Amino acid sequence: MWAEPTPDFVPHPWFRGPHRQTIAAAYLWRRLPYRAQQRTVTLADGDRLILHEDLPSRTDVSDRVVLLVHGLAGCHASGYMMRIAHKLAQVGFRVFRLDMRGCGAGWSQARRSLHAGRVDDLCSAAAFINQLSPGSPISLVGFSLGASLVLKMLGTRDVASWGLDSAVAVAPPLDLLACSRNLSRGRNRIYDRSFVRALCRIVDRRRQSVPGLDDVSWSRSPRSLYEFDARFTAPLGGFADVEDYYRRCSSLPDLPQIEVRTRILFAEDDPLVPADVYQRAQFAAQTRVYAANAGGHLGFLARPRHERPDADWHWMDWRIVDWIRDFDLEGPGGPRVNADDERESADPI
């Protein structure tokens, strides 16, 4: 079987359907106080990334470090980044939330922009974390575009030297061209327009404040993500055109080369990433793929269930916590986190 089903996910009755799942999950979460320590990663070209370090909130901590990578137009303060960092810290993990080039707290720290092929940026962040905590194993967790970047990094780089031994990728757009075309269909256009508005706001803000910004001029704002990538991302990234960018930066061809333990989670009704993208993929032996029949894009708002007593309705969050715990227990040196700890001990958010 190409993917393992996730029969324990049952959508919340208030949020049935992919669009309700996707939109509600983006807005229905409790903002947490910011207590992270910021760290700066200087890249070879002089640009800077910002890491937000969340320390464990308990005494019996793990040696394992978790690096979270956001999606397109996201940052360290995206709801899923804040929620999952909080939950992982509560069960004993040291967590870093990465702001990629020009994003979040690093919006003015880079002359160049984020694109789906910035694998070396992730490598620099991992190397930096490895220097901060030598000997600690590192798990990568990526979301949407960040998930595709994580998979491309694992399939094209020797990651063992930085202590990377495991990864989770949620809703990765493995084939960028197919996903871009999918955004132009039917109701999916609401996400297309939302991405373009958010990206154009980021570009406008950076144009006003970043000296020497890599830029292109346009007489009118792009109207789709495909157009944005054709007129902005591809030329500034050094690609021949937008389809060259999508082809070279998609992670689909790199999946068979992944050698570390990897979990991929997606929803079959994802309005951004069509399920046939995963059906066409060839996965490495170390990769396990989980398909939920519902959940939207980074949604997975579940109804309460007694047989799996998660502390809140964010089912995706708890599966990531479970998988990071599993990686830790399976790692060299034996268990580091008490697997019998009840996940209800974490504050629901």
Structural description of this entry:
The chain has 349 residues and is of the alpha/beta class. The protein has a single domain, classed as Alpha/Beta hydrolase fold, catalytic domain (Rossmann fold, 3-Layer(aba) Sandwich), CATH 3.40.50.1820. The chain is 34% helix and 15% strand. It has ten helices and nine strands. Strand 6, helix 4 (145-156) and strand 7 (164-170) form a beta-alpha-beta unit. Helix 3 (119-132) crosses helix 4 (145-156) and helix 7 (225-236) packs across helix 8 (242-249). The longest helix is centred in the middle third of the chain and has 21 residues, at 189-209. The chain starts with a strand and ends in a 19-residue tail after the last helix. The model is unreliable at 332-349 (pLDDT under 50).
What topology emerges from the helices and strands here?
Layout: E1 4-5, H1 18-27, E2 37-42, E3 48-54, E4 65-69, H2 79-90, E5 94-99, H3 119-132, E6 138-143, H4 145-156, E7 164-170, H5 176-183, H6 189-209, H7 225-236, H8 242-249, E8 261-267, H9 276-279, E9 287-292, H10 315-330
Parallel strand pairs: 1-9, 4-5, 4-6, 6-7, 7-8, 8-9
Antiparallel strand pairs: 2-3, 3-5
Give the C-alpha Rg: 19 Å
- If you average the pLDDT, what whole number results? 91
| Series of H and E elements | EHEEEHEHEHEHHHHEHEH
Instruction: Determine the structural class based on helices, strands and strand pairing.
Output: alpha/beta
CATH topology call: Rossmann fold
Provide the CATH top-level class: Alpha Beta
Give me the count of strands.
9
Helix content: 25-40%
**In the CATH hierarchy, what is the architecture at level 2?**
3-Layer(aba) Sandwich
β-strand percent reads: 5-15%
N-C termini distance: 35 Å
